[in-house]
Amino acid sequence: MNLASQIKAAAWRENLGGFRDRPRPEGARERAFNQLEVDGPDEDPVMALEAIIGAGVPAYLAAELHSARDGLAHARVRAERRGGHLAALAARAGAGTLAELVAACGRDVHTTARLLETLATEGHQLHPCARTRLGWDRRDRERYDLEATRPIRVRLVADRAGVLERSGDDLRNHPMLRGLDLPDPVLPVHPWQLEHRVLPGYRDLFASGRLEVLDATVPAWPTAAIRTLAGHDAPGFLKLALGIHVTSTRRDISPATALLGPRLAALLQAIDRIGHNGLESEHRILADTAGVWLPGSRELTALARSPLASIEPSDLVYVPATALTATSPVTGLSLAAEYARWSGDPDAWIRAYARLFAHPVLTKAEAGIGLEAHLQNSIIAMRGPDPVFPVSRDLGGARIHLPTLPWDLELPEDSPVNAASMDQVRSKVAYTLFQNHFASLVAVLERDLGLDGAAFWADLADEIGGRLSAAEREAYLGPKQATKALLTMRLHPGEEIETIVDNPLATARVHAHPTLDRHVRALQSPASAWIYDPAGVTAFLGSVREALGHTVLYAMKACANPAVLAAAAAAADGVECASGGELAAARAAGAKRLAFSGPAKTPADLAAAAACEVPLWMHAESVRELEGLAAAGFAGPVALRVNRGRALPGTHQMTGVPTPFGIDEAQVPAALERALDLGLDVVGFHLHAVSNCLEAEAYAWHVRDAVAWSRAAARGRFALRYVNVGGGLGADPRGARIDLAALAEGLRGLDAGGAELVFEPGRYAAAPAGWYVAEVLDLKTVRGQAFAVVRGGTHHFRLPAAWGYSHPFTVVPGPRTGPVWSDVEVRVCGELCTPRDVLNGGQFVSALAVGDRLVFANAGAYGWEISHDRFLGHPGPEQVVIG
């Protein structure tokens, strides 16, 4: 995005001047946490911001924006040249992607990581001033910014009189300085800082000889953090004070940060049992090893950091997470998309990646340590396309709640690291890990590979939800999260300002029953059961009727449990059936009205419909069926089911593609003529198009298009009284649901021309009101894969295998026998003699034992009804109804 577009995105996210209450910018797409992707014209950034706030932009902020625009334009030109160099390297190496080239560069992990970091041309994902460099001119940017073409010569200041203070190791032992003849302790200083801040500001210290600038220099390269430099001749990192305005503030370093860095790193490494799982995937800290500072000064301060080569094992490459969202010069995709596509399963790739970071970061937060886990502070160790373990760096932005820590640590009272409450710890994690880190990766994978972002967030919420306390659930999974209002804060310098954004991790979308756990524990062992809550079905059908304001028929094919069906028959305007058997069951359940669909109605079905005493609307599938209706003496209203229109986003396309459902659109005039000739009461059309559509805007288009087409098709032939748009209101098995409010807004003002508009939700009402429960019979590891084998499986709950997805679960402790597994990823398989009997292909659990019950939520639709329970003759599941 250009800078004007970045400003609009920030203003939207922060609702600056009520911007989010206005129409979305043309061509923009909203991602998670109200983050906007804008592809707009390259306007003057100051004018763009003034148009949003309706006032003039302060001079200081105008200067920052102009600096950012110039810096970004300059950086992109230089980055393009470097990209060409990387593309040429890939071609010579025969690598089709940058990811494949990186995988071949494991012998020099330090240089590989440094070069990848230069891809992060755009800077901070959520700040439009990411390329602001107030204090630097064009020549300075060329010499010292991320795209520098030659190493920076870091200067060394000798402490001749012992005026500097230190923390951690002697900095002279750091690999970048080792081998130099340095009899006195030294402080590394950025050359720009030395010339413009240090020598002019501390003349007396140098004139008196207490400090001395040495001739020796250390060559290093700027990273995305600008003031953090990576060694050129030797691996390692130096973080140096840099008195220019970068993004939103001057980038000096406080003495408190230099003091704390090595201490906190040593403590974290000493107690790495926090979150330890004993596996290769264990979280690593790239430690600050030494800090040096002049008391009372933020300008004479430095930190030294360990090299990547110090991390074990050594057969990996280390990819700065900030590079993953950057565009590969080889393919034009994001680097994350290259890895995810290379893995063969992008959905599994991003879930594995997120799991590696989420577990240790959340575990440390629980212990009072809120890591600043955004992209710039994160590194992922990769083996080929596979993420292996996470690495965190730069502890200066952490938030630490001293009363919660499991060990003693002293912090200066005024240190920003010192969190006044656990809320501050959780806010740091929520903002950096979820909003900055994961959201940025998911956005580029949605854009590049069509990733189902809603499903990712739902899966992540399910995965972490079972291990969170009530306070943590509110902070991480509540419907709203606070976010730093970075642009707003620049309009009000010195103020800490937050704004509220919508949280895609929100668990409010999942129907939770207050007594569910009690019912799960009460099941007879070994437990296998379906649990239904008819009241939930009633509530969800009520929400559809209230939101849409039109006729609602319950599609009983989703769930025909007698108690559920009875509740649906009472709550909806009627019931939609797809067979003679369903017709009889719906009548017995007390349906006030019926609709009869299905492509294979028999003469007996048509006769039963003709004799039905309950008002029944027939959805005719073919001309042959029309003739059968007339022969059976059917006198009720008839709607022609038509295959027309375009395919909609969802799991099953019913129309817009060749299917056996309905009458071909081109044959509708002839079918209508035949129906009318037969004397049938033709009232309209049945235009069911898709199953499980989660996009409200697309579904609203379908409804409007269906009404317009129906009016045109009926004109001059018969009076249109009925337009049935079918079902398809999405309720993903992983918890995501179509936004009813957005759908209702999309239908506002729709004119059906006097015809009755009918919706047929089934999944939307039934899915969140049903749970499948399976008890763990065995735990074992085979060829490195951990398995939980359960009583039951796909013969009771076929949908995960049929759709090829992993259904998330929670663990309810049962009558445990044997050892308890801790912090492990398990694949959940059933009792059938087929490797396809898989309910979940891999989910992390904090604790699991034989006897525990796994609860699969959002399972009430197309669960027991579509399963193959006769295979192998295992006993069926218990059927439990709760209220």
Keywords for this structure?
883 residues, alpha/beta, Transferase(Phosphotransferase), domain 1, Lyase, Ornithine Decarboxylase, Chain A, domain 1, eight-stranded antiparallel β-sheet, 27 helices, 34% helix, Orn/DAP/Arg_de-COase
User: For the terminal residues, how far apart are their CA atoms?
Assistant: 51 Å
Largest sheet: 8 strands, antiparallel
Beta strands, count: 40
Low-confidence stretches: 273-278
CATH topology of the largest domain: Transferase(Phosphotransferase), domain 1
- The CATH C-level name of the largest domain is Mainly Alpha
Give the number of helices: 27
CATH architecture of the largest domain: Orthogonal Bundle
Radius of gyration: 32 Å
- Number of discrete domains: 3
Q: Percent of residues in helical segments?
A: 25-40%
Tell me the β content: 15-25%
The SS-based structural class is: alpha/beta
Overall pLDDT level:
89
Major sheet strand order? 5-13-14-9-8-7-4-6
Given the C-alpha coordinates, what overall shape results?
elongated
Helices and strands, with pairings:
Layout: H1 3-14, E1 29-30, E2 36-37, H2 45-53, H3 59-93, H4 98-103, H5 109-117, E3 133-134, H6 138-144, E4 152-159, E5 165-168, E6 186-189, H7 191-201, H8 203-207, E7 211-222, E8 228-231, E9 237-240, E10 242-246, E11 249-251, H9 255-270, E12 284-286, E13 288-293, E14 301-305, E15 317-320, H10 321-324, H11 335-343, H12 346-366, E16 369-370, E17 378-383, E18 386-393, E19 399-400, H13 422-449, H14 453-465, H15 470-477, E20 480-484, H16 486-491, E21 498-502, H17 516-521, E22 528-532, H18 534-548, E23 551-555, H19 562-571, E24 574-577, H20 580-588, E25 594-596, H21 603-611, E26 616-620, H22 623-632, E27 637-643, E28 652-653, E29 663-664, H23 668-677, E30 681-686, E31 690-691, H24 696-714, E32 722-724, H25 740-746, E33 756-759, H26 763-766, E34 770-782, E35 785-790, H27 799-803, E36 810-812, E37 817-829, E38 838-850, E39 853-856, E40 878-881
Parallel strand pairs: 12-18, 22-40, 23-24, 23-33, 24-25, 25-26, 26-27, 27-29, 27-30, 30-32, 32-33, 35-37
Antiparallel strand pairs: 1-2, 3-10, 4-6, 4-7, 5-13, 7-8, 8-9, 9-14, 10-11, 13-14, 15-17, 16-19, 17-18, 20-21, 22-34, 28-31, 34-35, 34-39, 36-39, 37-38
